[in-house]
Amino acid sequence: MRAVRFLGNGVADVAEVQDPKREAGEVYIKVMSSALCGSENKGYFGDHSGRPGGYYIPGHEMSGEVLDPGAAKGLAKGDRVVVQIMDGCGKCPYCKNGTYQFCEQLKYEGGSHAQYISLPEKCVIKAPDDIDYDMLVLLGGDTVGVANRAANQLDLRPGMWVFVSGAGPIGLGVTALLKYKGCKVVVSEPSAYRRDYIVKHAGADLVLDPAVDDLKARLRELSDGIGPEIIIECSGNPRAQLQALELVRCGGTVMLCGENYEGLTIVPSNHIIHKEVTLKGAFYFTADDFVDIVKMYRDGLDVSGLVSHKVPLDGAPDIIREFSQGKTGKVIIHPQE
């Protein structure tokens, strides 16, 4: 089969690779749509010289068609599916509750920027036949899934202002979902392209440039002079995460959605204790979350505009480079084209 390969240090290509090795209990899938995720930037710029062949196949947000369900219950050849890439042990309290993402023996399944993929049965979710593959990868991927996971933990009310930090794929999904719930959204984003895009395609009410605008003053203008009640940080930038704790009002909530592996230095007394701030995180979604998201989509949740580019497999290396530079919205790769 053909697949995207991350060779490391900002280099990607498309090449012939071996078909996926099928293990017992796995479902063999023809990948129809595979979306780029901001978390892939770490792998794009990483060093893979120690891996077999010096590369790996990225991708974990996808929709596709079942070619062989194996022994999977409830799946048949030809079914449309999305995937939940968190592969837990299946035995611990978290897994039994359907929250595989918290399993202490968690494994990440991936490799969807390719024509075919083989995944454990518990990672494969049957999808409605009347929703196209591109929409399914949005509804069953991180962009809306993480946004919904965050929203379910927050006291959101129609008409309230919510501050979103970062207008990448997660920020787009968060903003679209907040607008669906009737909130007013102000977004901080350094990329001029992404500031413009999130207004036009996700409905942000106001965008700010953190390099130019006085965020503290502007946000207080919108929030009775005391700062936002809710801040959702989507960039993963350590400075932006610290700034969220500084900007949120006393008694407010900071929700972290953006991944940060670099660490963060906070002063608990100043940032959390004295302000009585609630700090939360939203990691990943479940099969039950996908059912809820589909219901919202049928009720009017519009995320179709979040996709700025759709490319065939051979177009992936160029668009991945643009994506890594913050010059796109959500990107979908069509491996069969």
SSE layout and pairing:
Blueprint: E1 2-8, E2 11-16, E3 26-35, H1 40-44, E4 61-68, E5 80-83, E6 86-87, H2 93-96, E7 107-108, E8 116-120, E9 124-126, H3 133-139, H4 142-151, E10 161-165, H5 169-180, E11 184-188, H6 192-202, E12 206-208, H7 215-221, E13 230-233, H8 238-247, E14 253-256, H9 268-273, E15 278-281, H10 287-298, E16 307-312, H11 316-324, E17 330-334
Parallel strand pairs: 10-11, 10-13, 11-12, 13-14, 14-15, 16-17
Antiparallel strand pairs: 1-2, 3-4, 3-8, 3-17, 4-5, 5-9, 6-7
Helix pairs in contact: 4-5
The total of helices stands at 11
Order of helices and strands: EEEHEEEHEEEHHEHEHEHEHEHEHEHE
CATH topology of the largest domain: Quinone Oxidoreductase, Chain A, domain 1
Broad CATH class of the largest domain: Alpha Beta
Number of domains: 2
| Sheet/helix structural class | alpha/beta
Notable traits:
single chain; alpha/beta; Quinone Oxidoreductase, Chain A, domain 1; Rossmann fold; 2 domains; six-stranded parallel beta sheet; 25% strand
